[in-house]
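Q: what sequence does this backbone want?
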């Protein structure tokens, strides 16, 4: 088609069936099935994330996702996470293809999920998990050690990631712990945390 490679893509706004993106600095309102002049194609979109195809490569992007590398040469797969008003790095990711809110926690030895969220995600942790005790901020509690099939943050996706399901409603958000973070390089730029996949 003679479409030039895209260097930068930022998701600016999300709507059902539409997405406002910045393609190399130019704002484009994408509609499902209709490629932009640069060849960026929206596969699907809702208020949380969009599936976008560039140069034949599909990726799932949440609001604010910013990818800066040539799609035709994905040597650096990364995710950018912004600091919230309370100083935490929070983002929207997915576990086994299902969307979840996450908070980066380098103090957590593994990804931590409460049992309510685990049931919503369809995780059979009582059948497949190993019973353990977990030390939390409120004391020691019961949990199950499991392995997640897929965990995605931004454009980074890892398979077979260790996690812990903790009985009860805490933590209220999924803790993105070291079983994921040890597989990326982290660069803290103050208001933004950049994760880059290690190869």
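A:
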């Amino acid at each position: 088609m003679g479409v030039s490679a895209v260097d930068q893509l930022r998701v600016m706004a999300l709507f059902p069936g539409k997405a406002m993106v910045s393609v190399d600095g130019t704002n484009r309102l994408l509609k499902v099935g209709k490629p932009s002049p640069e060849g960026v194609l929206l596969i699907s979109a809702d208020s949380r994330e969009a599936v976008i195809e560039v140069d034949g490569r599909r990726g799932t992007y949440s609001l604010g996702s910013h990818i800066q590398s040539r799609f035709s040469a994905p040597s650096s797969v990364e995710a950018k996470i912004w600091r919230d008003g309370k100083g935490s790095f929070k983002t929207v990711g997915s576990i086994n293809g299902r969307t979840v809110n996450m908070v980066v926690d380098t103090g957590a030895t593994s990804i931590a999920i409460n049992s309510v969220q685990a049931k919503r995600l369809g995780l059979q942790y009582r059948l497949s998990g190993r019973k353990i005790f977990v030390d939390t901020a409120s004391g020691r509690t019961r949990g199950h050690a499991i392995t997640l099939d897929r965990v995605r943050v931004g454009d980074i996706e890892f398979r077979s990631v260790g996690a812990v399901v903790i009985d009860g409603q805490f933590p209220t958000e999924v803790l993105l712990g070291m079983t994921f973070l040890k597989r990326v390089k982290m660069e803290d730029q103050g208001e933004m945390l950049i994760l880059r996949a290690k190869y």
